[in-house]
Structures are given as C-alpha cells and as structure tokens.
Fold these 2 entries.
Entry 1:
Amino acid sequence: TIDYDKIKKASAKYPKLKEINYTYGTAGFRMKAEYLESVIFRVGILGGLRSKKLNSKVIGIMITASHNPEADNGVKLVDPSGEMLEQQWEGYATQLANAQSDDDLIAVIKSIVSENGIDESKEASIVYARDTRPSGPKLVAALEEGIKAINVVGGNLGVKTTPQLHYFTYYLNYCEKPTEGSYEELADKLYYQKFAEAFHKAVGDNPCLSPITIDAANGVGAPKLKELAEWIDKINNNVFEVEIINDDIKSQGKLNFNCGADYVKSGQKIPTGAPLSVGDRAASLDGDADRIVFYYLNDYDGTFRLLDGDKIAALAAGFIIELVKTAGLDINVGVVQTAYANGSSRAYLEKELKVPVACVSTGVKHLHHKAQEYDVGVYFEANGHGTVLFSPNALNKINSAEKRTAEQEKAIKKLQALTELINQTVGDALSDLLFVEAILINRQWTFHQWDSAYTDLPNRLVKVVVENRQIFKTTNAEQTLVEPKGLQEKIDKLVAQYKDGRSFVRPSGTEDVVRVYAEASTRKDCDELAFKVAGLVY
Ligand code: NG1
Ligand code: ZN
C-alpha cells in the first residue's frame, strides 16, 4: 500500500526548486541536469501509480536528454506496451513536478489515486535505465528514492539506449518473464539475440555490402552497437562490417558535440572525426540511439548527400510494397510523416509508390498512433526517428499466407524477417540501421542507388527566439497559423512568390524558440523565403 508519511519524509530530501515551472513535453521533462532531481524523484512515484493503475504491469523510465548537450538531462515514462506514456498522464506528471511543497505533493498523489480509482494495495514494478551522461548516476539515485518511497519493485537496467528500455519494458509485459539472470544483462542479451537473428534471416544468402562507418555521437550507441555487431558476427561474420567512430563515452564534453544525427541533419554536414571519401557509406546516431541518418559523398562532384528519415521511409515502404505484391497478400501500407518531410519525398511516395501519406503534428506519439491505422504503417520524422508497425491483422496474414510459388514463399519469409527486425515499440537507430542494411543487401544497392528515387527540394529550418512562443497557435498538422491573427496570410503571400515554395511556422515543443521551415525549387529561393518568413515572426 501507499505510505504517505514515508513519501513525505523522502520528498523532503528532494525539494522542488521554487522558481522553475516544469512541463512534461513531447520528450518528457528535459533541461539542465541540475534542475531535475526533484522531478525525477517524483517520476519514480508516478511510475508506481501508473503500474498500480494498469494492474501491476511493468512501467519503463528512461533518463536521457537524447541529442541535447551533455549538461542537459531528462526523463520520460514508457507504458507497458513499450509506447510513450498516455497523454492524460503527461498532465499528472506536470502536476506532480510542480507541487511546491511536500504537502502539495501528497495532495496531488491523492488526487491522482482518486481520479483513477487506483487500488493502493496493488503490486507495482518499474524498470529504468540511463544514457551515458555524467549526471545520470545522481539522477538514478533520486529515481530510486522515489521508487522506494512508494514501495515499488524497481529493476535497474544500468546504461542502455532508449529503444532498449522500450523493448525490454514490452518484453517483460508481453513475452515470457525471465526467471534467472539480472535484468541489466538480460536487457542487452535478449535485444542482441533478437535483432542479430532477424538480421540474418532478412539478409538470407545475399552477398554483403562494403563496410559502413557509424558515428555514435560519443554516446551509448557506441558500446551497444559494438556488442550487437559481435552477436551478428557470431552467427556469420561475413554479412555486416561496421566501423564505429565517435565512440568515446569516457571523456567529458564529447557527447553530441560536433557529431551525431542531429548535428548532421541540421547542419547538413559531416561530423568531426569522420574522414569520409567518395565511395564510403556512413551514418550517425544520436546520443540515446533512437535516431539515425545516413550519408555519403556524391561520386561525380564529391558533395555531401544526406539520406534522412524521409529517405528511410521511402526505402522501407518501397521494399515492403514490393514484397506484399509478390506474396499476393491483401495488406494495405501507409506512410506517416510530419510537415518537416521534404515535399519531394511526399510526391515520390504518392505518385511513384502510390502509397497513402498522412501528415501529423510533430512528436513520435502522433506518428505512432496514426501509423497504427494501417495494416503496415511506416513512420519516420525527417530527423531520422521512426519505425514500421505491423498490425496484428498484417502479422496474421503474413504468418498464415499460402505459399503457392517459390517466389511467393521467398517474399513471405522476407516479410516475416522484417517484422522481427524492426523495433516496433519505438524508433530505434540500431534496429533501423540493420533494417536499412538488410533492404540494401537484398536489393544490392549502393547509397547512390537508394538516393536516386527522388531529389530533395532545397530546404531550411531556422530557429527564431521570440518573447513568448505560446502566442503561436497552429492547426492543420501544424502547417497553418491561427494566431497571431493575420500572420498566416502574410506567409501565404510570400510563399506564392516562389516556385515549389512551402513554409510554415510553429512553436517548438522542446526548446524555447519558434521554428520556421521553408523549401523552394532553388537554394537561393529557399533561403530567401526562410529569411523573409522569419522576419515576419520576429
Ligand atoms: P520540436 O522542438 O517540438 O520541434 C523536436 C523535433 C521533433 C522531435 C522532438 C522530440 C524537429 C523539427 N523537431 O521537436 O522532430 O524529434 O524534438 O525530440 O526536428
Ligand atoms: Zn534520441
């Protein structure tokens, strides 16, 4: 049961910083690490309440600030299925974090208990992990105090990628509960085993491609990818050759610094420590290994070519559609994007692949939920975060399909392998890496061949610091401003002056800025459009 005195006593050690107003946003709580101790203590309590509410199912908690600077940190909760925390509970998280005193905290807990009819006597359990940030251990200690205060069983997974935590949370709830071994080791072992085996199945006996260089952003992806690659080699060491760079997780100040997926995507340039030559293949992970972007140098002029989330979605959708057709299955495939997807990618998907494309608001949960509406839902944010969801209906059809010809049988087996190779709980840089590599191996494609499906329109994303970003209100999957009044009309007028022009403005959910996105048929036009729209906002 819940011992409110015990919570109150424990909470006294983690007083809320008076002047800060916390918000559980798109990526949970995220800010300078020193402001987070009280919040994370309280998140431990919230995890316990959520587990009790869901009949003792295991809740996941991840301590990370992803691609943000090393001095930042953050925390988010993961629901039993491995998905993000349900929206209504984000509100509870914000309420708990902002309770000013220990008494206020108790009052908020009691109100959550009564609003949800929570049975206080229910058992509860939580698994938690952190990335490699130096502030991690101290924050884990605060989390453990919160977990203890509400009398919940906690399983420390140690240092993990965000997607590993999601996957293990799902595993504990929906697969066989392990009876021996430490959770910390199992969360690695079960993960490596699953994805290494699925990779081999998906690759079949196709010849392997040239080595790939992975920039691990000096984060947790480095040691995890190294171990995963060893598992792959143990089965057959002739299939996948990876060289990991920016793998220094010991030195301070290196995490995400001038490297990683976010640096490469926003700057459209090579990370430091990556001497890239024409003919090389490379990719960058972010600090918690849930995003990946690929790149190479063009062989005729040596220019930098980015293969971002949109390109991954096009590759994945194209291959899956082909397999479904060959297999003769009645399965619909859809792609979900945000407004940041390049206009050319959308045109390619709709006109060439003839696949329905939905556009939703920024934030993984919006994409994930929309993707669940299709038999097979492919979703990727342009920044490289995404996955493919196979619905129970699709899995059923794939697993019970009649195999009339050898060709059909091959296509069905391949589809089966792909359903196992993609981490369906959340976007996962390591699983996505293997998924992309498996498709390229099947197709025997170079990066250039993959890239040639369509050419990105020149685009620009700029941040504008404004006095109050809350006054910017949007509709139409964030592509149209309803407030401040009159601003959208001005943007429309500007956009109309440029060939293939498109631009939209929205407040960021993770930073105190307004983002302006623009694309147009030439680099010059695009930059001019972005600059002019930013001028309207400022
Ligand atoms: P905001 O700050 O709301 O634009 C950013 C990314 C999202 C997503 C979230 C969560 C862009 C333009 N926005 O959101 O795609 O990754 O962070 O981390 O890349
Ligand atoms: Zn991340």
Entry 2:
Amino acid sequence: ASEAKASVSRFAFTPIPTHTDSTVHVPEGYNWKILTSWGDPLIEGAEAFNDETGGSAASSDKVFGENTDGMENFVYQGKQLLAINHEFATRKLNLPLNEEGIPKSAEDVLKLQNLQGASVIEVEDSENGWQIVKGSRFNRRITHNTPMKLAGPAVGHPLMQTAADPAGVQSLGTFNNCGSGKTPWGTYLTCEENFNGYFGETDAAPVARLDGVDAGYKRYGLSKDGWGYEYHKFDERFDTAKNPNEPHRMGWIVEIDPTDPTSTPVKHTALGRFKHENAEAVLAPDRRVVVYMGDDERGEFMYRFVSNGVYTPGQSTDGLLDDGILYVAKFNDDLTGEWLPLTPQSTGMDAAEILIFSRLAGSAVGATTMDRPEWISTNPNEVEAYCCLTNNKNRGVKPNAGGDDTSVNGPNPRETNNYGQIVRWRPHNEDHASDTFDWDLYVMAGNPTVHDGPNAGSDNIHAGNMFNSPDGMAFDENGLVWIQTDGNDSNEGDFAGMGNNQMLVGDPVSGEIARFMTGPNGCEVTGLTWSADRRSMFVGIQHPGGNWPDGGKLPRSSVIVIKRDDDGVIG
Ligand code: FEO
Ligand code: CA
Ligand code: CA
Ligand code: CA
C-alpha cells in the first residue's frame, strides 16, 4: 500500500465516493449524457418507444435492443460505427402486460428474440452531442433469427446437424451476447454466454440423441424448463425433444463485419464452445492470432486460441480463426502456469467434439477451475494479460458440473469467494503464443472496513476504492486498465461502503485503483469503448433499476457518453 501511495498518480481526475442513488456520477470536470436506450428507433419503420407495452413485436427488430453489454468502435470511411451487444431480455420489461413477463404466444417469443443479439449503429458528434445517424446504411440489428454461417472444424459434424440444417453448416441467430472483442482486421467479435437458458423440452415424442448429448446438456446446464423464455413452447427449434442438436449451434464466438450491413455473421467453432465472456485478440510476434477467452461459470476454465496461419495486413483473413489450436489454462501454485493444448491425443476426444464440448476436454487435461472468468484484456504497453474472476460462492464448497475439484488454488485463493479478484499473467519470451507464463494477482477485491485477513482484499484496496465482482475490463491506449463491476449493490454487510456498481481505473505499474464512475442502483456497468479521438468514452449501463434514465414507467438499459468538460482526452 505504501508503495502505491508514494508514486505519482497517473489519473487525471479526483476519485469519486460511492453512491446509492438512481443516477450516474462522474468526477468533477467530467460530464455524461445518454447516447441511446433500449427501444430507441434505429431502422426505417421503427415505432417510438412505448413504455406501456415495451414496444410492438412488429417494430422489435428495428429498435435498439435491451441490456447493452460489450461494445467496440470501428472507424470506416471516416465514419464511427459502434457494434453493441444486447445480452438478454428482462421479460417483465419487454412484456410488461404479461403476468410476470411470461411469454404467451409465438409473437411474444419473437419480440424477445428480436430485442436481443447485437446492434451496429453509426454515431456522430453533433452540436447536441453524440447521436445515432438516422437513416445510416450501417445501422443494423442482428437478432436470435439472423442467418449465420458455421465455420471451422465442428462444421458438418453429426452433433451439429438438425432437421432444418441437415448439413450442419448454417444456423440462425446469436444468443446471450455478453462480452466482445475486435480483430486486428477490424471486425467485431460477439460472444455467446448463457445460451442454455433459451432451451426447454416439451413432451413431444423425443428424437433419438447421439452419444454424448446428455452429458453435454449436464455440463452446460440445459434443463427441461429453461429460464422462463418459453421459446420451446412456441418455436420448436428450441424444444430439445425435437431438436436435440440445436444447443450445439450456440455458445460460440461470432464474427460480424460492421462495415458491410449485408454480411453474414460467422460462428468460429475453432474457438470452442462454452459460456463465453469476451474474446481478446492480440498478435504474437510472428503475427499468429492469439485469442484469450473466459468461460463464466463457477469452477470453469480460461482458454486461449492460437491460429496456425499469420495475419498479414491487406491479405484475406478467411479461415484464420478456423484453423488453430485451442488451449486451456493451468495455473501452478508457484506463480507459473501453462497452456495445455486440447488435442485428440491429450483428451481422447475427436477434433470436433473437443470444440463442441470444450469443457469436457478441459476437464480431461486437468485445467485449473476458476472463479468465473469474465473479461480478459491485454496491456498495450507490456506483454501481459488480465482476467476478471468475478466471484464464486462455490469455491471450496462443491465441485463444478463436471465433478472437478474446486478447492482453493493459486489464483483462486478464497473459499466462498464473495468479492472476486483480477489475475494477471506475463507470457514467457514476451510472446502471447508461448505455452508458459508467470502470474500474480493484480488485485483481490475485499472490504477492509468489515474484515481482516484475505477478505479485507489486497494492499491496493482501501476504504476509498472498495468494489466487488469485477466483470467488464478494457485497457486504454495509455496502458491504464478500466474495471467495471457487476456485483452486490446492497451497500450492507460484507458489501457495506461499496455502493452501486461502478467503473474504476487501475494503474498496472503502481497498483493504484481509483473510482471514476458510479451507476444508477440496480444496474451493472458493462461495455466500454472510446471515440476515435479518445475524447469521448462510451459506457454501457445494463439492467438499471427504478425508472432510470427518463423517469418513465420502465427502466431502460442505455449506452452513455462520458466527456471531459474541457474536451480533453480521457484516460
Ligand atoms: Fe454476461 Fe459473465 O457476464
Ligand atoms: Ca459480464
Ligand atoms: Ca457478471
Ligand atoms: Ca449481465
């Protein structure tokens, strides 16, 4: 702690206190505005937002979707294109006239399907601040029904075949799009997380299942009733009695070209199937593409893909993300670690099964069970990467769904981990494609005002910067790391003094961490990108409570823009 305090702060703001109210707070000298909210019209023919009904089904694929999450900015022909995820639909808000928001018709289901997925919007800074460019040809909605191409080694495998797509080569829609990434060639990576919740099983005569399907359902959390979306009752694609392989076509990393509104998104099976958080793509010194990925479930793993081919600017990138090796992380207690390749030799599974059931492959090689790996980000100034391990109430309590041991281990050192931590690793030889690394914990969140010992947190946590459940994370170009939280905002007990969910910024060198923003109560803060000139920061406010931001009947997840009053660069 003394070392952190002795250094000169690199932060260009005075840290703010916690808040427990229903608005956004930023430091003195900064301001914020809404860019866009759930239900805002995007595409020709869209109706204005209606907070009695949550909008019509007919208009639902023409408006900004709900529950904004990962986002990236793409500069193309002088225009700025934001690609933004819509992770899930809060049923009670999207179907406010239905009891408990339970869908009662195919139309209700279609509306939910349309309000999730992703959006591409062209934005510009005008006299009235940042706005969506109305009528831009780039504005696009991608939903649970948008045609996608399947690519990579799992394509065509019997586990990928369905009645509607007997060849197993194309699928409809992208699901539970949580974190995001950006390729070196300027495309968007959207990451499918809790896809299991959309499926259920009716009492239709069951179609025979291939070997391994039931074990896969168990490991990935497929259930007969699903999570209340009721898709399976009105859209048989989601009825696992009739379409047992449909869930295998979700849980992937999807590449979208935001510069071509007619392009077909591609699901890259070589990057594995699990509950993806984000996808952090970086180049190795030899220009192979390295993609780091977390699997956000208690006791699941961290992964890395390394391409066989190399990226050469100006040349085709077709197939680059479809040919390579998927690895899983093993952390040793002596602060070293290694990437274990998932191959037929190491796992006893065939090449496609390794990808479709990556979790089972990870268990087979003895990967380290983690405390819910969320976003991974790489430092632009150093060859190092950080991963938010958000929390894990099951650590040391019960094994993961595959029966793997979850006793405390090196980077996951606390039982019933309420607070979360950020692990950092430095690949050997300054090469993200190296198979070995050294690791340490950048921060252990905690509460030094109510605990002594490990639950007080690491030395860089004090009463003035407490938080829990780090989730979103992104480095800026100066090498500061921005940390967003999705945790307990009760502000009591173990969480007393932490207030609402928030965004902090960390100095990787000194360890200093300071609070930059707090969100309205009930929300999580997730998704972060910058304008091309870095004078504006776009931040996602997901599932706010109350009636934020416009005081209407329904709270609306929104993207906000933060600027400095003097219009200086942020970060
Ligand atoms: Fe959708 Fe793991 O957060
Ligand atoms: Ca997240
Ligand atoms: Ca989370
Ligand atoms: Ca979320």
